[in-house]
Amino acid sequence: MKIAKCWKDFEILDAGNSQKLERWGDIVLARPDPQVIWSQAGTRSADWEKAHAVYHRSASGGGSWEITRSLPEQWEVSYRQLKFLVKPTGFKHTGLFPEQAANWDILDGLLKGCPTDFEVLNLFAYTGGATVACAAAGAKVCHVDASKGMVTWARQNAQLSGLEEHPIRWIVDDCQKFVARETRRGRSYGGVIMDPPSYGRGPGGEVWKLEDCIWGLLQEATALLGESSRFFLLNSYTAGLSPWVMKYMLDALIVPKLGGQVICYELGLPISSTGGVLPCGGSALWTAKDIEGYQNEQ
What we know:
Immunoglobulin-like; alpha/beta; 2 domains; eight-stranded mixed β-sheet; 7 helices; Rossmann fold; five-stranded mixed β-sheet; 32% strand; globular
């Protein structure tokens, strides 16, 4: 497991009863998490009373925020030199997945000394956490997401991080269609990042279900790697797509053509009240050469 333990502006204060209590800068939020199936630790129960807002699920689907203390519309948090805008959204999210900081650190290492024309393709790029991390490490980035609002948010994050003049292509498009066009054009990228959703709909109403669509998309996306490519990072928050399943697919699609190795791991966040770690999805990573410290434990 890779644990994102270097945050200063984020912390899981406590977790229990299907909720996690998080500190985002100076703001405390309580949000549901289906993996939190234990009762509250109780050792820091007073912290739960400090929540500025609590997200309540609706029996009919979705949910809403209950504002319990004065809460700004949006605010800024930092991770190392990176800066992000966060805000409560209607789907319980805040616009940032803090566990991905473990991957940002790995990407930073992979991109050290990369040539000036090295370009990373970030698919399903959301609000641009990985985009900003790769740009800050010196890579050109092609950021692709189907939501215009998410791309606008990502551009704001790049600006906050002082990267407004960095070579980033901002693309509002369906990721499957974009990859298909890039494949036909014979394009290649030095690195590819994919963080596909579990479910979704395309601009024409097409239904996306990860387990049904991921293999075909991976076949096309991995074809965008070339002889000088360094990595392919695949993330998933879908229970049916374990890190080892993702590893198997990348092993089958990339290693026979380009060599290298594939590792896989869960992502986690520390829980301050107990010292435990909350699992938060998983990743599989192909690299063109062995990377010390990232080998799988057999």
